[in-house]
Design goal:
Blueprint: E1 21-30, E2 33-43, E3 48-52, H1 59-67, E4 74-79, E5 82-86, E6 89-90, E7 98-101, H2 113-118, H3 126-139, H4 155-167, E8 173-177, H5 185-202, E9 205-210, H6 213-219, E10 222-227, E11 230-235, H7 237-242, H8 247-252, E12 257-265, E13 268-271, E14 274-277, E15 289-294, E16 299-301, E17 308-316, E18 320-326, E19 332-338, E20 348-353, E21 359-362
Parallel strand pairs: 3-9, 3-10, 7-8, 8-9
Antiparallel strand pairs: 1-2, 1-4, 4-5, 5-6, 10-11, 12-13, 12-15, 13-14, 15-21, 16-20, 17-18, 17-20, 18-19
Helix pairs in contact: 4-5
């Protein structure tokens, strides 16, 4: 077992608490292949994190490493300042104060709801068990479900019971591996905000692994974007969306496109649909060829505009349409339009830029030009 990190006594006024979870340059192998490479991130007490990325990017391997089921080949993992994983050894999963909820609901079919929740607190005093079960059932709006069996519950109800069971021992950290992926859209929309509310009320930190970025945005205080075993960015949802660190993150998170631009001066650039101003950036030189990221809300439908785009795809979103249009220059853009502006595929429509903040990427390496 790795040694516990010791700290020198300091006065309460100057003491800085370590993160609840701290990963430093952690790498893992899976079937003789490096599945996670040099991941560094931290999660403070009470925070909720989400790790998103395409299938096979290393999300679940990283989660298993945090849980203690995998030994890192490099780096370290610490909780509350105590090292729990290094290449020399790991603290056993059951001794980490970590709970887990998996993609497939694994309730015990022969036990009723109360017995399922009680499983992780079997050694508690019976009165404390009953109180904890009642607390969790009330939190998840499942009062009077104690005697029900899993087969009589809906998918969403089963998932809530699985979460309640994992939360019963009051773990310091709850790990959720694609815990909402088996639910239909309606149940996800109902359950995800409820889970966030319960986690916050219980003051339990959590990390969710998901391929569904909308779930990540709805649940998390911090989001990590992974690709091919690497963590590109670990940041707030707002910064991930509006300040992606590279092209992959920009394209993976949210809808949007990258278009070419030329730097005209220290604060001005030109694109196929006009001239735009950006914050002063000393790394950019006049004449530089760059890419800028545009989200759907950066381009608005405008019948009076001289800038025209040909509709190539449309998606009805209830209150609005999302159009993908191609400019005469062959650049592709997404555009938002009120729902009464129902245009046809192949139709040329007017668009106007509504860009409040320009995110610029290097054409050569795809990195954000800060």
């Amino acid at each position: 077992m790795p040694e516990t990190v010791s700290t020198t006594a300091v006065s309460p006024e100057s003491q800085t608490l370590p993160p609840l979870l701290d990963l430093q340059s952690v790498s893992f192998k899976y079937k003789d292949k490096t599945a996670v490479s040099g991941v560094t991130l931290s999660l403070d007490d009470g925070e909720i994190g989400a790790i998103v990325g395409p299938s096979g990017c290393g999300k679940s391997t990283l989660m298993r490493g945090i849980a203690g089921f995998e030994t890192p080949i490099h780096g370290s993992i610490a909780m509350n300042g105590s090292v729990i994983s290094t290449p020399d050894g790991v603290v056993e999963p059951e001794n980490r104060g970590v709970g887990m909820v998996f993609q497939d609901v694994t309730l015990f079919p022969h036990l009723d709801v109360a017995q399922n929740i009680k499983f992780g607190i079997r050694k508690w005093h019976p009165d404390s068990q009953l109180q904890r079960i009642k607390e969790l059932l009330d939190l998840f709006n499942l009062s009077n479900f104690e005697d029900r069996h899993p087969h009589s519950l809906s998918g969403g109800e089963q998932q809530r019971i699985a979460l309640a069971r994992a939360m019963a021992p009051r773990p310091q950290l709850l790990l959720m591996d694609e815990s909402f992926s088996s639910l239909d859209v309606e149940h996800r929309h109902q359950l995800v905000p409820k889970v966030r509310e319960v986690l916050k009320s219980e003051k339990i930190s959590a990390i969710l692994v998901t391929h569904n970025q909308n779930v990540g945005f709805a649940l998390a205080d911090r989001i990590g974007v992974m690709e091919s075993g690497q963590l590109h960015q670990w940041d707030t949802p707002l910064n991930i969306y509006h300040q992606p660190c590279n092209r992959f993150t920009a394209r993976f998170i949210g809808e949007g496109t990258l278009i070419s631009a030329t730097v005209l001066s220290e604060r001005k650039l030109s694109t196929a649909f006009g001239t735009h101003y950006f914050e002063n950036n000393e790394r950019l030189q006049v004449g530089d060829q760059v890419d800028i990221m545009l989200r759907p809300d950066d381009i608005l439908h405008d019948d009076e505009s001289d800038i025209r785009g040909k509709v190539e795809h449309k998606a009805f979103r209830g209150s609005h349409f999302l159009y993908r249009v191609r400019l005469a220059s062959e650049e592709l853009l997404y555009c938002l339009a009120d729902s009464h502006h129902n245009h046809h595929i192949g139709e040329w429509i007017g668009i106007t830029p509504n860009i409040e903040h320009i995110v610029i990427f290097d054409k050569r390496n795809g990195e954000h030009r800060k």
